[in-house]
Amino acid sequence: MKGSRTTKRLNRLASLASLGLASVLIGVKIWAWIATGSIAMLTSAIDAIVDAGAAIATFAGVQYAAKPADRDHRFGHGKGEALAAFVQAMFLAGATVVLVFQSVERLINPEPLTHLGLGFWIIIGSTIAATGLVAMQSWVTQRTASTAIAADRAHYLTDIAVNLAVLAAFVVTAVTGWVSADPVFALGISCYMLWNVKSITHHALRQLLDRELSTHDRNRITKAVLDVAGVDALHDLRTRDAGDRVFVEFHLEVAGAMSVTDGHAVSEAAEAAVGDLFPNGVDTVVHIEPAGIKDARLDAVLGMRS
């Protein structure tokens, strides 16, 4: 598979970097929370713990997805990445529920914050580190299209937003003395985290439930195949994204008088055309039929065209 070795190496590197940073941030942010008493800082600390759990899930998912096809998994292990992303979303959802209750409790029973300067500089450092990691993960996902790394990147984008909200809470508290600013900002962070949960879950379930590729990608596949010399038509196009690769199946119509050898050559050219559209990996299965044949078709059942 074209580029698969580089893809696996990049995904592994990104997941290890995420795990390393999350481990450091947990200790630093818990220390800052204890020192300041800030519920907004607690949201950041819990988010770091979630990041660590998510990073472990990401690393495990990437490692599993990198395994080659075997006797029991003949389509490969690519869905391990989508499963890891789904686990991350559940981690984040659970943490968000805890933060909502903590924020409401602090609104009811407000407490003054201490050592705001310490908390301020810790958050600044955390934000810079998280921004660097997100930049690296963005570079990796552009080259690998990894679902797990993309989900982990979403986590760290959340972390940056959380950090900025904590900074805002510190500034407002220091300038105005309004003690409720801290839990109010924490509630805002919680809502943002829930929005990220929805986004990550939706993307992971697309793969886990074998949702078709976008209409744009299906049209690209159809055009590429029809442009191959010797192809008359295609129908019953089926696609799915398995994380580490895309699976494409279709019935290819060629001249009925064409020899088996020539038909095979046309199908090979069609597979190559599809492969050029998905350089990160695609498995294509072609069923050759004589042009104009009248048979039972999936397209007719679904009431659609390929």
Q: Your description of this structure?
A:
With 306 residues, the chain is mainly alpha-helical. The protein has two domains: 205 residues, Up-down Bundle (Alpha-lytic protease prodomain-like); 88 residues, Cation efflux protein, cytoplasmic domain (Alpha-Beta Plaits), CATH 3.30.70. It is 69% helix and 9% strand. The chain contains nine helices and three strands, in the order αααααααββαβα. A hairpin with a 4-residue loop joins strand 1 and strand 2. Helix 3 packs parallel to helix 5. The longest helix has 33 residues. The model has no long low-confidence stretch (mean pLDDT 81).
The secondary-structure element order is: HHHHHHHEEHEH
For the largest beta sheet, what order do the strands appear in spatially? 1-2-3
Structural class: mainly alpha
Shape: elongated
- Tell me the total number of β-strands: 3
What's the CATH H-level homologous superfamily of the largest domain?
A: Cation efflux protein transmembrane domain
- List the quaternary state of the chains: single chain
The assigned CATH architecture of the largest domain is Up-down Bundle
Mean pLDDT: 81
Number of helices: 9
| Main pleated sheet | 3 strands, mixed
Beta-strand content bin: 5-15%
What is the helix content?
55-70%
Q: Please give the alpha-carbon distance between the first and last residues.
A: 26 Å
Rg, rounded, reads 25 Å
Could you tell me the CATH topology label of the largest domain. Alpha-lytic protease prodomain-like
